[in-house]
Design brief:
This protein is an alpha+beta fold. 34% of the residues lie in helices and 23% in strands. The strands form five sheets. The chain has a six-stranded antiparallel sheet with strand order 13-14-16-17-18-15. Strands 3-7-6-5-4 form a five-stranded mixed sheet, sandwiched between helices. Strands 8-9-10 form a three-stranded antiparallel sheet. α6 packs parallel to α7. The longest helix is centred in the N-terminal third of the chain and has 21 residues. It starts with a helix and ends with a strand.
């Protein structure tokens, strides 16, 4: 039938696309439309292949980077907990199913219902949190879910054996169901927050390749490598591939081709790791005038290098991370609304909630400091300089603020240049200034 022929052809295209993705170098961006155009297929076909490739661990889609070809062993979902991690979080012990500890869970099911109703909510990869209900334990394992027994209870030998056969962990802990669910949700939120923070690993795939220039390398080696790569600066490593210096064309200028690099290089260069936030790396590079940062592991062994241009371009296209209202700053700032006065000047207003109070029952100085800092940050963003790092802040506390009082936070940009911004902020309650701050911040200009 014609329909079957079309499906067969479509499947062939699909397989060809997956093979094409597999052959891409690690770190290559994979835009859907460009891939469809290059391979002569529809956007829909390319999109389906890309989604399947993501499921296979061939690519990873990040909100601020796009879809990138990745090493399968590095593909992970930070918000998904493994049963082993869960066991540590709840401080529990393992009753059975040890071989399944590396599996991840995607959903929590609270077993506070009848067995028939409970069964409808349980599916493979979920976790049933329940007390001393052996029938519920068995049903969960049979339906492909793990089990966490609360209250310190155990289960029967039959259920343990079933967990071992299915490689589905069955755990126990002494906490009650509500406490356990809260602990797990807290851990998941923390991982989601971390996932939103762009780190060097989002921009760079680590390499196991040895450093190309050693301390014993000569100027002639530098010149040859520079001609091949077109680059003018490189990290220098020792015999164990640990970064010990940086060498640039300026360093070797006028030196003999046989001169060794250990006599010319800059020692103890600044480095970053794969877990360093991109914003932190950008601040270092801008403030210190650094063009290339070696990326190292815990033993300072070289795993790659990242240029100032790469970091600043990533900052330019990055979105500010959404913290889901779960960071301390977001919780404090959540009740404040942005407003403008008749002259268009920015200010923020909100209530001093009981959660903001200090030991004396008034709003703590730390909270006021944070609110003024965030107001200043938004004033800088209003200048279309989104990315910046606080250099220093001087605060003055003039009077206390009672709980439930209405507060206005008023930032005023005093001075702004390409590199620096100076902001004065006042916290006002009932027309009186209760606190004020002077801040200077360094802007990170991607251009």
């Amino acid at each position: 039938m014609p329909g079957k022929d079309i499906n067969a052809n479509e499947l062939t295209k699909h397989e060809q696309l997956l093979q094409y993705i597999r052959e891409l170098p690690i770190g290559t961006k994979v835009p859907v439309r460009q891939m469809a155009k290059d391979r002569g297929v529809s956007d829909g076909t390319a999109y389906r292949a890309l989604k399947d490739a993501e499921q296979l661990g061939l690519v990873s889609t990040k909100e601020r980077i796009g879809t990138v070809r990745v090493d399968k062993k590095r593909r992970s979902h930070p918000e998904q907990l493994t049963f082993a991690e869960l066991l540590e979080i709840v401080q529990g012990s393992l009753l059975g199913g040890e071989e399944g500890l590396d599996k991840t869970l995607h959903k929590l099911v609270i077993g506070a219902m009848e067995l028939g109703e409970m069964s409808a909510y349980i599916d493979p990869g979920s976790l049933l949190i329940v007390g001393n209900r052996e029938n519920a334990h068995r049903i969960a394992i049979e339906q492909g879910a793990g089990v966490l027994i609360t209250g310190g209870f155990g289960t029967s030998e039959e259920v343990r054996e079933l967990a071992n056969v299915r490689a589905l962990p069955i755990l126990t802990c002494r906490h009650d169901t509500f406490t356990v669910a809260s602990m797990i949700n807290r851990a998941i939120y923390d991982r989601l927050i971390k996932r939103k923070i762009m780190i060097i690993a989002d921009l760079l795939e680590p390499s196991t390749r040895e450093g190309l220039l050693k301390q014993s390398s000569e100027v002639a080696d530098f010149i040859k490598l520079s001609e091949v790569t077109g680059n003018s600066r490189f990290p220098v490593t020792d015999e164990w591939n640990r970064v010990v210096g940086m060498i640039t064309s300026k360093d070797v200028m006028g030196s003999s081709p046989s001169q060794t690099l250990d006599k010319l290089m800059t020692r103890r260069p600044m480095t970053v790791t794969l877990n360093t936030p991109v914003a932190s790396a950008a601040h270092r590079m801008v403030s210190e005038g650094i063009e290339l940062l070696p990326v190292v592991d815990r033993q300072r062994k070289l795993v790659g290098a990242i240029s100032r241009g790469e970091v600043l371009r990533a900052m330019q296209f990055a979105n500010r991370p959404a913290h889901l209202g779960e960071t301390f700053d977001a919780l404090m700032w959540g009740g404040f609304t942005e407003q403008r006065d008749s002259e268009g000047r920015l200010f923020f207003s909100g209530l001093a909630t009981p959660q903001m109070s200090g030991p004396l029952g008034t709003i703590s100085e730390g909270v006021l400091t944070s609110l003024m800092q965030q107001a200043a940050s938004r004033a800088v963003e209003d200048l279309r300089r989104r990315e910046h790092v606080l250099d220093n802040m001087t605060t003055y506390f003039l009077r206390t603020v009672p709980v439930d009082a209405s507060i206005s936070i008023v930032p005023h940009v005093i001075e702004a240049s390409r590199r620096y911004v100076k902001v004065e902020v006042q916290a006002i309650q009932e027309g009186d200034v209760v606190a004020k701050a002077m801040l200077t911040a360094q802007t990170i200009d991607p251009s």
